[in-house]
Amino acid sequence: MLYSDVQRIMIIAECLAELEENKRLREVRTCKVCMDSEVNTVFLPCGHLVCCDTCSPALRNCAVCRALIRGTVRVFLG
Predict the structure, then answer these.
(1) For residue 69, how many other CB atoms are within 10 A of its CB?
(2) Could you state, in order of their start, the residue ranges of all structural domains in the chain?
(3) Is the four-CA dihedral 58, 35, 32, 47 of positive or negative sign?
(4) How far apart, in whole angstroms, are the C-alpha atoms of residue 15 and residue 5?
(5) Of 31, 44, 35, which is closest to residue 77 (Cα–Cα)?
(6) Domain 31-78 architecture
(7) 65 in the Ramachandran plot: left (φ > 0), alpha (ψ -120 to 50) or beta?
(8) What is the DSSP string of 8-75?
(9) Measured in whole angstroms, how far is the alpha carbon of residue 62 from the centre of its chain?
(10) d(CA 12, CA 18)
């Protein structure tokens, strides 16, 4: 099957868009404190998910909204 130059450019553009989306999703799921582990701890009562279970005990206030952390819930993302 032969592709025209326009079709090749469209395929490349789609691949680049998918790569950018993949990168964005990885960044969203990365701990905002250590920038290494995957996020897995929800802060209560605000509900923000920005931190891993290793970093969360060191925080007293949410890194996003600065609300006092009254509890945490460990989540498992599939």
Answers:
(1) 19
(2) 1-29, 31-78
(3) negative
(4) 15
(5) 31
(6) 2-Layer Sandwich (3.30)
(7) alpha
(8) HHHHHHHHHHHHHHHHHHHHHTB-TTTSSSBP-EEEETT--EEE-TTTGGG-SB-TTT--B--EEEE-
(9) 16
(10) 10
pTM of structure:
0.69
pLDDT number for residue 60: 97
Q: Are 42 and 48 in contact (CB under 8 A)?
A: yes
Question: Tokens 């995957």 appear where?
Answer: 38
Cβ contacts of 48 within 8 Å, gap of 6 or more: 42, 62, 63, 64, 65
Predicted confidence band of residue 2 (pLDDT cuts 50, 70, 90): confident
DSSP character at residue 3: -
Q: According to the model, what pLDDT value does residue 29 have?
A: 92
Which residue is it, tokens 């582990």? 37
Q: Which residues contact 21 (CB under 8 A, 6 or more apart)?
A: none
